[in-house]
Amino acid sequence: MRAYNFSAGPSTLPLDVLEEAQREFLDFSGTGMSVTEISHRNKAFSQIVEEGERLLRELLHIPEDYAVLFVQGGASTQFAAVPLNLMHNGKADYIVTGNFAKKAFEEGKIYGDAACVASSADKTYTYIPDLKNVPFRDGTDYVHICSNNTIFGTRYIEFPETKATLVADMSSEILSREIDVNKFGVIYAGAQKNLAPAGVTIVIAKRSLIQSPLPLCPTMLQWKVQDENGSLYNTPPCFSIYMAVLVLRKFKKEGGIKAINEINEYKAGLLYDFIDNSSFYTNSVVKKYRSIMNVPFVTPSAEQDESFLKGAAKEGLVSLKGHRLVGGMRASIYNAMPVEGVKALIAYMKKFEKDNA
Predict the structure, then answer these.
(1) CA–CA separation, 249 vs 265, rounded Å?
(2) What residues contact residue 356 under an 8 Å CB cut-off, 6+ apart?
(3) Distance CA 348, CA 320 (A)
(4) Hey, which residues does 150 pair with through a beta bridge?
(5) Is residue 276 within a helix (H) or strand (E), and if so which, with residue range?
(6) Using one digit for the tens of pLDDT, what is the confidence trace for 282-314?
(7) Cβ contacts of residue 301 below 8 Å, gap of 6+?
(8) Domains of the chain (ranges plus CATH)?
(9) pLDDT tens column, 323-334
């Protein structure tokens, strides 16, 4: 029996996608080789990369003047790649709404005048700052945000209007809701939460912004080089890209991002409604800014939290432990988490509350 995996990443993948990969694992596209063995220069694999770009463009309505890249190193590597490709005036603004937004800000400070112009740290990152009153500075190269907070469970419901290029880390919500790519100069996302196994990172960047990386930018971090080489400058994370394409095919078949978002809203609604109507469980995020991807919650005590987690694991509800910074529990209900998984979690939560309240 497969467990319901609520991990924040690497996260659950669609069962039918895993089964498809299993069926062709030893013989990819009639090559007589596994996709883990095939050369990235093989035509069969280059077609996979091309299909991945095509599907991302279709699903997210990405204009042709944006590069779509498959790179390595995770979103954390892009914390450095952003300033190294964009910080021409040596100045950038960051909105810090959680742990990864803070890490991106700290990385930005290495390369220039990076400023935290707004933060929700004063209330343990349980809200998004008022975007209408953010004191953005003049002359900045870009404004950086993390659109969904994996650890603390918040998300932007609207995005800041800025004169400077808007850059967004969308690792924990990519492809979960419809966005207007044109509002952003750069979007990047580690794929291991909502799209594929760990290893590949998606970068969507307006080509006019990436033609002149800083002189100290390593070749491997130059988006221009990756774009000119079709994400094949060196050996890419082949298996992760292949798995991403299988998932993207499924998303298209099932109705695209609009249909996915409707299911995600429904799943999150079920869980939040149960928590809100419980006198036992608590979610501390301001309702307006609640993430539909990551739902943190606690029982009345740390001891009961621990008991909850042990009991959940016995029921096949795994990886529910909250991040070490906040404790408690966290249910990551990404695109691939079925409605049945959320309902099974709620059923267990009801039983645990009845037995321990």
Answers:
(1) 21
(2) 280, 299, 304, 307
(3) 12
(4) none
(5) helix 256-276
(6) 999 999 999 999 999 999 999 999 999 999 999
(7) none
(8) 25-253 (3.40.640.10), 254-356 (3.90.1150.10)
(9) 988 899 999 999
